[in-house]
Specification:
By secondary structure, this protein is mainly α. It has two domains: about 1-55; about 70-100, no CATH class. It has helices at about 10-30, 35-50, 75-85. Helix 1 (about 10-30) runs antiparallel to helix 2 (about 35-50).
Length: about 110
């Protein structure tokens, strides 16, 4: 989740920068250019940090940061398992996935 204190125009600009960096990763991989790929991954990381998705936590309620953990290794494990058992492919959506589109090759 992006930091809620970001102005909408700033958040939009950072998301645009993030998407461009992700495309650069894709292109560098397609061109088999390891140096460009490293630079593109660095740009992704910088954009995510600016958005508040990585780096120091932006919330101040003392809750731990589980962002970079698999759900099964967090206090949310039972909730996540219940969603998977119900056929929810993407727990952020909360509904069973009925699409036939493959995500193979995408993270």
């Amino acid at each position: 989740m992006a930091r809620p204190d970001l102005a909408e125009d700033e958040r939009a600009a950072l998301v645009k920068r993030l998407m461009a960096a992700r495309r650069a990763v894709r292109d560098a991989k397609a061109e088999n250019d390891p140096d460009a790929e490293v630079a593109a991954h660095r740009a992704v990381d910088q954009a995510k940090r600016a958005l508040g998705e990585r780096g120091p936590v932006w919330w101040k309620d003392g809750a731990p940061d589980f962002n970079r953990h698999m759900a099964k290794n967090t206090p949310y494990a039972a909730w996540y398992a219940k969603l998977l058992a119900a056929g929810v492919k993407d727990p952020r959506q909360g509904t069973p996935d009925t699409s036939r589109r493959s995500n193979r090759g995408h993270r």
